[in-house]
Write a structure and sequence with these properties.
With 763 residues, the protein is α/β, with parallel strands linked by helices. The chain contains 29 helices and 22 strands. The strands form 4 sheets. An 8-stranded mixed beta barrel has the order 14-15-17-18-19-20-21-22, surrounded by 6 helices. Strands 3-2-1-6-5-4 form a 6-stranded antiparallel sheet. The chain has a 5-stranded mixed sheet with strand order 8-9-7-12-13, with helices on both faces. Strand 19, helix 25 and strand 20 form a beta-alpha-beta unit.
């Protein structure tokens, strides 16, 4: 019995050694999972042997644990063995087969055995191992040279169970010896299979490395710091040298302009000492044929033939960097002239204007070609481009090397010079350059330019403010005919800022309906009765106060807001006329000023018709006043529009008469109802020369059956003189300043009451 006990222990120990060995092999080759499963089967078989030993040799209280250990070892032993064999063959154990093995094993282990012998467990073990062996032989016989012997070994392992079936306990010793030898053989087979599999994987990796590197467009070099151990074809293509062919190449023997052995040795040392994980550097290298390349290097530590080495990845960035530089140049330079653009200007100004303590100075000139559209309109864009290029070349030649010339776009240039003392010299050079003719294929042209000059830090404390100051000075220079240069002043920038502020505020004012109308009476020159009103626009800007109509009307015309503003005021006046008609039964005519942009707009007539329909006012209650300049500049279009307005029953009068270039022929052609003499001709009254002019206008108007209104009447003498000259209506502060809606309505009610009283007295 003692010999059998030692045999059990030896069997279990051998199985543990084999199982642990296979487990250690699996840790080096994690991809071969069947090794792990076979290791588990061996360890569970050792547990089964321990169960047998405890059942047969342990004292009574502990002998009961034998079947438990036998069951705990037997089921996973066969399951893991089946899973491992299936995995080695590249297959998976079906769930039904696994369940059958588990249930059958449990039944065989727990079934009562005949006295003095083992029968059910050996028979079941024999059946399972025989089936697995047969399947393994079928699956592996043709595919693997070494693994093909697994099937026969499993069958022999199963047949060894016959010793127990035939001889009972007497066959236990030879069974244990045969089982441990066969399982050792299986373990050795698995170990050798793992080694062969590892070699195959290493071969695959080597082939993959060769495939990747041999066909890579990036250079791959392996070096020990002194020699080139490996170089792929891309390295040979980059350097034009037969590297990596034949014997190892000593780096010190290579051309120093192509290989920096000092840099390479330093990076190699850092990597091998573990001070860095990945090293990267770049540089220009002169290679075979005299070509200069821009190369980028990345390196890391590797093992090569069992020795530490450095693998270097070499990338030729020459074309990529050239393309990047081309893109940067394209983004920062003007395509037509090749000059730096606005982006570079801002960058330069920030470089020069980073100190505001006076230790650095910078002169900036913004230059704009006057009336450059004439070149494009009259000569074409090709000639215009030639003029720009020739003018830019002339400016560059005149400025010399110190000042930098840039094109900001269109017909605008900028000159930057970091020398404040050079400002006067720059101004003189630019002025002289503009005096010379520009020669292009289409001929010679003289160019006028407006220039604004600003100096940092005298005129501004930063780059953006300096550019604003120079721009404001340039626009001020445009007020001077011909080539002109203006030095930056604070008031220029304030004017520009105020102008922009007013433009934005006017847009909001129109949207929020901040502009309203006052009404100034027109008085009969003889009877003193109220003949009508002129609607005058007023803007009470929030936070600022009253803004002059001269200012905001000019802004509206400049920004193209006048059609919107004029349409809003015309509708406002007509709605007020409708209210007065509803309250008082009638209304005197109200004159509304119409700008040339409104009058010549194709949709103006439709706008007037719509407003008349919407408000329901009689057309006779509305008079439109147009400026003399609008009629002169667009006589044909004006005549057509006035004819259509007259057809609607609306009277049209000419405002500011006598200040423009109107002619008798024009007055005869236009369907006008009257003219308003400009206040500039009324102010001198009753001076004899002024009387003569006003009287001549009244006689001309009488001949054409036109009513005459004199505006700007501020004194009794002016009123009497205008009446005597023949004016029909008078308007001015002498009679009333512009009235609010309420005061104008009260004036009309008073007039109606007086008229009614006069009629009653006459009756």
């Amino acid at each position: 019995m003692d010999g059998l006990r030692y045999l059990y222990l030896t069997n279990a120990a051998m199985l543990v050694v084999i199982g642990v060995g296979l487990l250690l092999v699996w840790r080096r080759h994690r991809g071969q999972v069947h090794l792990r499963d076979m290791s588990g089967s061996m360890l569970c078989a050792a547990l089964l042997s321990a169960g047998y030993l405890m059942r047969d040799a342990a004292p009574a209280p502990y002998a009961m644990l034998g079947p438990v250990l036998m069951l705990a070892g037997a089921i996973p032993n066969l399951l893991l063995l089946a899973v491992s064999v299936s995995g080695l063959a590249g297959r998976r154990l079906p769930r039904a087969a696994a369940a059958l093995i588990a249930l059958g094993t449990a039944a065989a282990v727990l079934a009562p055995e005949p006295a003095g012998q083992l029968r059910w467990w050996p028979l079941w073990d024999l059946a399972v191992l025989a089936v697995l062996g047969a399947l393994a032989a079928r699956w592996l016989w043709r595919s693997h040279r070494l693994e093909r012997w697994l099937g026969p070994q499993l069958i022999l392992l199963g047949l060894s169970q016959l010793l127990l079936v035939v001889y009972g306990d007497a066959g236990m010793a030879p069974n244990l010896c045969a089982a441990v030898l066969l399982r050792a053989g299986i373990g050795i087979l698995y170990g050798l299979s793992a080694l062969e599999g590892g070699l195959r994987e290493a071969g695959k990796l080597a082939a993959r490395f060769q495939l990747l590197t041999e066909h890579s467009v990036q250079g791959v070099v392996v070096t020990d710091g002194k020699r080139i151990l490996y170089a792929n074809p891309a390295v040979r293509a980059i350097y034009g040298l037969p590297l990596g062919q034949g014997n190892f190449t000593v780096i010190a023997d290579l051309p120093p302009e192509s290989f920096s052995d000092e840099q390479l040795l330093r990076q190699h040392r850092l990597l091998q000492e573990g001070k860095v994980d990945i090293a990267s550097w770049e540089g220009r290298r002169e290679v075979a044929g005299g070509r200069e390349l821009e190369l980028r290097f990345e390196a890391w530590r590797v093992e090569w033939d069992g020795v530490g080495a450095t693998q270097i990845l070499i990338t030729d960035d020459t074309e990529r960097n050239a393309s990047a530089r081309a893109l940067v140049h394209q983004a920062t330079h003007d395509k037509l002239t090749g000059l730096p653009n606005r982006t570079v200007l801002i960058q330069r100004l920030k470089e020069y204007c980073y100190l505001a303590d006076g230790s650095l100075h910078c002169t900036l000139v913004v230059l704009n070609i006057d009336r450059f559209k004439l070149f494009n309109q009259s000569q074409g864009h090709v000639t215009g481009d030639h003029v720009l290029k020739a003018f830019a070349a002339k400016l560059k030649e005149a400025l010399g090397a110190r000042a930098e010339l840039m094109r900001l776009g269109g017909d605008e240039f900028a000159i930057v010079d970091p020398d404040e003392g050079n400002a006067d010299d720059i101004a003189e050079r630019l002025h002289n350059a503009c005096l010379q003719a520009v020669k292009v294929p289409a001929g010679e042209y003289f160019i006028d330019a407006s220039m604004g000059m600003a100096v940092f830090p005298d005129n501004a404390g930063n780059a953006e403010a300096l550019l604003r100051a120079a721009n404001a000075a340039m626009y001020q220079a445009k007020r001077t005919p011909g080539t002109a240069l203006a030095m930056a002043e604070q008031r220029f920038e304030q004017m520009s800022s105020k102008s922009l502020d007013n433009e934005q505020a006017l847009r909001k004012g129109i949207r929020n309906r901040e502009i309203y109308l006052d009404y100034q009476p027109k008085i009969d020159a003889v009877s003193g009765r109220l003949l009508g009103f002129e609607a005058l626009a007023r803007w009470l800007r929030p936070g600022v106060g009253t803004v002059s109509p001269v200012e905001f009307i000019a802004i509206a015309e400049r920004t193209g807001l006048i059609p919107e503003l004029g349409g809003m005021l015309l509708e406002q006046a007509c709605r007020q006329i409708a209210i007065w008609c509803a309250d008082q039964g009638d209304c005197v005519p109200v004159a509304v000023n119409v700008s040339p942009m409104q009058l010549l707009n194709r949709g103006f007539l439709e706008l007037v018709e719509r407003i008349l329909v919407d408000t329901g006012i009689p057309p006779r209650c509305l008079t439109l006043e147009i400026t003399e300049s609008a009629a002169v500049d667009n006589l044909d279009d004006t005549r057509l529009q006035l004819q259509q307005l007259s057809a609607l029953g609306i009277d049209v009068a000419m405002d500011d008469f006598g200040t423009g270039f109107s002619s008798l022929s024009m007055l005869r052609q236009l369907p006008l109802s009257g003219v308003k003499i400009d206040r500039g001709l009324i102010d001198p009254l009753p001076a004899p020369d002024a009387v003569a002019v006003v009287k001549a206008i009244c006689q001309l108007a009488a001949a054409l059956d036109l009513q005459v209104v004199a505006e700007g009447i501020e004194t009794l003498e002016q009123a009497v003189s205008a009446r005597d000259c023949g004016c029909h209506a008078l308007q001015g502060f002498f009679y009333a300043r512009p009235l609010t809606v309420a005061d104008a309505g009260e004036w009309m009610r008073r007039e109606q009451a007086e008229a009614a009283a006069g009629g009653a007295l006459a009756g």
